[in-house]
Amino acid sequence: MAAKEEIGFRELPIRSEQAVFNRDAEAQSNYGVCGNIILIISYIFLIITFPIMIFHCIKIVQEYERAVMFRLGRLLSGGARGPGLFWINPCTDKYHKIDLRTVAFDIPPQEILSRDSVTVAVDAVVYYRVCDPTMAVMNIENFDVSTRLLAQTTLRNVLGTKNMSEILLDRETTSHQMQSVLDDATDAWGIKVERVEVKDVRLPVQLQRAMAAEAEASREARAKVISAEGEQNASRALKEAGDVIAASPAALQLRYMQTLTQISSEKNSTIIFPIPIDLIRGFMGRGTTPKAKSYKPEPRFATTASIGSTESVRSPPIPDM
Q1: What are 213-263's pLDDT values in tens digits?
Q2: Nearest to 15 by CA among 140, 131, 103, 101
């Protein structure tokens, strides 16, 4: 009857440091005939050897620790003991000490095939703590190793559903998703996953080179566009400046003077002074002379020309006396 009324530890809705397995008082104290005999003998033995066994009966747990006690293989009521002093029976009691501090561990680099068929190596770090020592002892053999293995498989499963661009850019979203999955899976173990962070994403060397070439090409394209826009703006500004200078002839002379001032401030040994074309145009008009007709003297030697079989001879001209 007592065995039917016991409630299994997996059916408990309570999750706290003082989680208690709901058994009635009769079931908790019912160790059987042999169990009761062993308890009586152990108490008699403790009374006889009390001055010596007292050092083995008193245990101490730190502020950040809890002790889960078993008597004759049964979990004692009252939840985990600690912090401070507590009493045990060395002959019949056994306890497991659980550390409640946050534990951090690295997930080894995992070779993951993303959704767009790109192989990447990803590693992460996980922070967790034990929030229910009783469940951590009763529901799982080794909660630390199990949490580490579960974190590795969760990392593979979560990142396997994402593209490479999402893995590289949406790390925060990936971390929150992994934390939610791990926390739900370890809830029955009394484990609270506080944080998951993706540390590094390593791409293949060939893919890194391809991405670098693509980035360089895009930067060069943007640079050319910016340069073309700058030249276009400069040409517009020059056109406007030319229109202003054309409206006032004295503005060109002032520009010449400004240019000479800038050149002289640089301590150059050679100064190029531009001369306006209008100043020398008058001198160019005065210095021009009409061209003389070219005289081509007639040849003074006889020339012969043969046309077919006929030959003609031209004698040189006789000079006038």
Answers
A1: 888 888 889 999 999 999 889 888 888 887 877 777 777 777 777 777 777
A2: 131
Could you tell me if 103 and 144 are in contact, meaning their C-beta atoms sit under 8 angstroms apart? Answer: yes
For 44, 160, 196, 201, the CA distances from 171, given in Å and listed in that order, are 63, 14, 10, 10
The long-range contacts involving 5-13, CB below 8 angstroms and separated by at least 24 positions, are 9/75, 9/134, 9/135, 9/138, 9/139, 10/139, 10/188, 12/135
Place of tokens 């030697």: 301
Residue whose pair of structure tokens reads 């073309």 in the numeric block = 228
CA angle 36, 40, 45 (to 5 degrees): 145
Q: What is the pLDDT of residues 271-292, one digit of tens each?
A: 666 666 666 666 666 555 555 5
CA angle, residues 208, 210, 212, in degrees to nearest 5: 65
Measured at the CA of 188, the angle between CA 27 and CA 148, to 5 degrees, comes to 130
Residues with Cβ < 8 Å from 172, sequence gap 6 or more? none
